[in-house]
Amino acid sequence: MLCAHKKQRFRKSAAVTAVALASLLLSTAAPASADGRDDDGATATLGGLKTYGDVELKEGAKWRTVQGGLFDLAVDGGGTLQTYCIDAFNPTQPRARYQETPWKESSLHNNPDAGKIRWILQNSYPQKNDLGALAAAAGVPALTAQQAAAGTQAAIWRYSDHIDARAKDPVAQKLAMYLHEKAQPLTEPVASLALDPRTLSGKSGEKLGPVSVETSADTVDVSLETDAAGDKVTLVGGDGKPVTSAANGSRLYVDIPQGTAGGAAAIKATATTRVPIGCVFTGIGQHKGSQTMILAGSTTSTVTASTTVNWIEGNKPTPVPAVSAKKNCAKGGVDITATNKGDVQYTFSVEGKSHTVAPGGSRTVTVPVGEDRTYRIVVTLPGGKTQEFSGILDCETEGKPGEGASGGGNGGGKPSPTPSADTTSGTGPTDRPSDEEDVDGSLAATGGNSLTTPLAALAAFLILGGGTAVFLNRKRRKATRD
Questions:
Q1: Which of 21, 77, 210, 279 measures 20 to 30 Å from 305, CA to CA?
Q2: Do the beta carbons of residue 214 and residue 235 sit within 8 Å?
Q3: What is the side-by-side order of every strand in the sheet holding 251-255?
Q4: Is residue 164 over pLDDT 60?
Q5: Under the phi-then-psi rule, with left for phi > 0, alpha for psi from -120 to 50, and beta for the rest, what region is 176?
Q6: E runs forming strands in 21-79
Q7: What is the pLDDT of residues 171-203, one digit of tens each?
Q8: Under a CB-based contact definition with an 8 Å cutoff, are residues 389 and 374 in contact?
Q9: pLDDT for residue 78 is more than 50
């Protein structure tokens, strides 16, 4: 991954203009992030613990009482999520911001019982909102919403945190044991909406892609937003025909006519759907350490996702760099992946070490990061330009080893007396949402449309002399909210 690339000569006036324009564009770009899928799926704000009861967690030889049950979160753009906690010993933060996140980038990444948690969610409250039928299945005379929520949370904690957890109410505890004993492993749900990859780069005269669509929605509206250079660039399907809609499994391409000047674009996807039960939500922005949640129910809402695209004029040999980052919970770090869609190799450096990417190749470097530690990773690209990724690695629960749940714990820590953040919005336990809210399926939403990110990529291209290197500086959705 190391090697110098071939430099091109440019007229001085053109170079000065490029640098000036690039500086202007880069001044508006936001820093990149590697905290989960930072612009895919649902983003929401914590409302508080709404329907709950007392749950006892075992610490050594003692039992400690906390409140456990259903949280409400308000989805960006409208809608409501209901979640349980999967991080018993870590408190939430008031008005915390949350992002839909794949299991592999959360505390469930190495949990063999993750699928059993999803079974519990699908077979208990609020998905099973006939409390009489749920009580009969659990072998108890009757259940209140509070008992159902507390019992469900206790059963989840036994699998998510591998600790001894029991509902204080005897009826709720019978439900907890029924759920724990009956749980069967299920697979991870699909994302509400995601595009992969999230960055594309190449040359004019090429069809860039594919970009795969993953969604729980029946249909997805897709479009291409371009800068001035991309007025003839089109979004197409595998058959080369322009597309405006897609579905789960669709593959999208960006067709760039030969001779098109270097530029940038963004593929935008929008859908109306429910977030599938069992999707994980982790804190983002200043709330990155907030208690991890798992979806139990939601309303229908709008979700969005995007992929940034940049290209150079394809009549000269040159590298085409693109850099992205993603948490790697299995290895305890952040994966920095550099690709090269050009025909000349280039060198980048991370943490003081240099790596070379061959033409048409890619290279992934894992930067170790301590659990619950903040990180700032700077990638140096050709010409001395940099791209930064920052966040916090939150891959483990903070529970202690259990004594009779389902096996060992992860790490240490003390539980919050109330593992919730904001219960001020209610005076105590509440019943299930009204029928109008219809919280029984899956929902999601993100917001914001901007070409700032692809313009930042174009700026990098201009700074490096019109094509010696291209990099992507991703913009976090709704950055001002975080």
A1: 21
A2: no
A3: 193-196, 207-215, 251-255, 234-236
A4: yes
A5: alpha
A6: 32-33, 43-59, 62-75
A7: 999 999 999 999 999 999 999 999 999 888 888
A8: no
A9: yes
